[in-house]
Amino acid sequence: MKYFVFILFLMAWSVFSPKLVYAIPPPEFLIQAGSQIIQIFSIVLLTASAGMSIFWSRIVGFYKKQKQKKLFIFLSVGIVVAGIVCLTFGFNKINRFVIETDYESELSAIIEDKIYQYDQITIVDSSTTLDDIANDHGALFIEQYYTNIGSGALSAAYAVSKQTVDFITFASWYQDTTGVDVYAIYPLMKDKYSAHFALYENGKATHYAVVLTLDASNGYYRIIDSSVRVLSDEEVASQMGEVIAQEQIFSDIVMTNSEFVNVDLSKVFLVDAREDEEYELGHYPGSSHIRFADLLAGAWIELPADKEIVIICWSAIRGSEIAEYLREKNINARYLEDGAMGWVDYGGLWEGEILFSSQYYEDRYVNTLSTDWVKDAVENGAILVDSRDENVYNQKHIAGAINISALFTTTEVLEERLNAVPANNGIITICDDYLSCFDAKIVGVKLEKKDIHS
Asked: What is d(CA 100, CA 81) in angstroms, rounded to the nearest whole number?
């Protein structure tokens, strides 16, 4: 009886014992073949079960012949314990593979949601726009600049423009303009903004996306550089729904590694859309670094129109989404198959390291902290930085935690949020899945660079 109770205890322990938790894994944990691995592992388990069944029958036969009860009980308990341990280990492995495989669909879903948010251009009146950007003087300047153009105050607009042409030429551009609606203004970097607006003239609305670089060194703002793309023309009377540009025919959106070997940078503009820390660790020689969040917020407007755009990211997830997004803007964009990691595995040219863990391998980057430890740390002044997506954070978060998510935040806004974190020897980043945990590592490294310890 006591052996039976012992076996039940082991089974209960295997079911209710704490499961393995991955707090801040580097991105090289990504698994893209989870389903195949699960199938293979299932076959292994079935084979092992059959083997154990045969072994068990041999033991029973041995007992019947030898009548050695104690040895039989000892071997039986050993087999049961070994079976429980193997099954527990196996199911934990399967669970881990499922979680890792879900990363890809999770990241794609979040990216698509972010793209949807950026693409929802809703006409708003001036008061709403001013309320939204009331604390951003650069954005207010841009709002006023286009308001002046729309109202015919061209002298005021010209006074703060780039002035690459004379006033007569500038005024001729807007002689038929009857109004301007500014839809959205996004801060990209310091004194650099993207904006979406519609300019009305001759019964039509022309939609534009523009990136403006401002200068305020003389005590007032003026435009010193700009890049403009026409999104579409449409009749004002039928201005409803989404703005859709005429679709163009491009080559295959995926660039294979064999194609990339012979890439000509005089004809291709190569964009590395990873985070700063990833790019600094290693990158393709000659590539241009533009963070994923900045691309979505409007940095895509500055991409050259006379070259094919090729996007590199870690595993091709971000790259594929960006390439699709750019093609919707009539930009000839492609992405590198399997991303940077696949390219390095292929043996392709690379400068520096590719594995994030090659530099960020110390315990503070991978440790999982217990709830009690975190509670004690907070009571002693530690600051919690929640690196989950802002929407998830707003739904539920630990009281007092600061929300800083790097992957989907423009550089300018991210810098403001990082600078707002007080210097402290106890910064703890919070995450709850593969995506937010990688984000937590990025945020932690950025805080370290600012000498704010995490």
From this structure: 29
User: Which residue in this structure is represented by tokens 């940095």?
Assistant: 299
Chain segment 313-339, per-residue pLDDT in tens: 998 988 999 999 999 888 999 999 999
What does the H/E/C string look like for 251-275?
Answer: CCCEECHHHHCCCCCCCEEEEECCC
Q: Please give the tally of structural domains in the chain.
A: 4
pTM flag (> 0.85):
no
**Structure token pair of residue 114:** 């972010």
pLDDT (tens digit per residue) in 345-355: 999 999 999 98
Q: How many other C-beta atoms lie within 10 A of the C-beta of residue 377? A: 16
Q: In this structure, is residue 150 part of a structural domain?
A: yes
Cβ-contact 245, 231 below 8 angstroms: yes
Instruction: Tally Cβ neighbours within 10 Å of residue 12.
Output: 10
| Residue 249 lies inside a defined structural domain of this protein | no
State which residues form the domain around 318. Answer: 254-358
Distance between CA atoms of 356 and 277, rounded to whole angstroms?
9
DSSP H or E segment with residue 342: helix 339-345
Phi, psi angle pair for 313, to nearest 5°: -135, -160
Distance of CA 334 to the CA centre of its chain: 18
Quickly count: other Cβ atoms within 10 Å of residue 240's Cβ: 6
Contacts of residue 6, Cβ cutoff 8 Å, sequence gap at least 6: 77
CATH number at residue 338: 3.40.250.10
